[in-house]
Give the backbone structure.
Amino acid sequence: MRDTPEIPQAYERALAGVGAATLAGLHALETGFRRLHPPQVLALREKLAPVQEQLVRDLETFHSSAPPPEELEAFHEALAAAAGTALGALERFCEDVPGAHPAAGVLASMEGHARAQELLYPLRLALPPLGRYFVEPVFHDRLEELDPPEPDGAGVGLHRTNKDEEDTRGGFSLYVPERFRADTAWPLVVALHGGYGNGRSFLWTWLREARGRGFLLLAPTSRGGTWAFQRSAEEATALTAMLDFVCERWNVDRERVLLTGLSDGATFSLLAGLAEAAPYTALAPVSGVLHPENLRLGNIARARGRRIYLTHGALDWVFPISAAHRTRDTLAEAGADLTFREIADLSHTYPREENARILRWFDPGLALPGDAD
């Protein structure tokens, strides 16, 4: 049995520093994305700037510190790559490019934020703070339960189609909790990204909850730059094929399948979720609207009795709250089993804190003590 490598104190301090600064950067970005509203962009940049500067200092120290033991070289390189990616995300959020629309930098920042998490996730077992980042606070003292030493088969963790391609359209990302067991049927959440996004990034909007509460998470990527509203039947068929693929390989409870999404993904979740023979048991669109194609396809009549949790921000500047009110009224008049949440401080962005409410509404078995009503 090999001895545990001796870690130089200077390296240990540098490791702790860059780890803490990287997580602080990810948390700060998450807060910035939640509060994102065009009039607030400059103020958000000012708040993120000190976090960015701290990560620059700690990453420089990490690179210049005593070299790690040979056994930690791969870990060192992986952490450095993740920290650098998180720094790039902060830089893109904070940079002011003359003539450029602020949204371009923010979208790139969101991509970087997701990529940094993707790089950090395999390191969670080596650094407990990372393990805690990828789960809700109630599970912080129960990390060993979430990563059993002998998982049930090789099909747990992160999966992605076409791994050699950076941004493949029409594929999907999938997360199967590490404590998954095939002798139990698990709920499934299908989460649709917003316009010009991708499932690989949007997956991280729900992974923390999936990991602790225990459900499979499927994040498809639209075949075009956004969801095909005018060819919704083809796109919906592709989504169903992805769902069937997952159900054939993992034990999914077909009576507990939630379809949700953000912005264009929310709008398309209503199109696909109200289609004839749709395989979803509940719908939870966030910051989307009822597309006119629903009328042409007869989807409104199929809304009767359907469980729908509609979330929208009062500050939404893409789909104004008045459009959400029309969607609410149309679905209510059609007889949908409707819950409507209007969030006063929400703009056109994702309210991560709403996941707990959505999950409790969708399946009380996924609720945690302390979840908000």
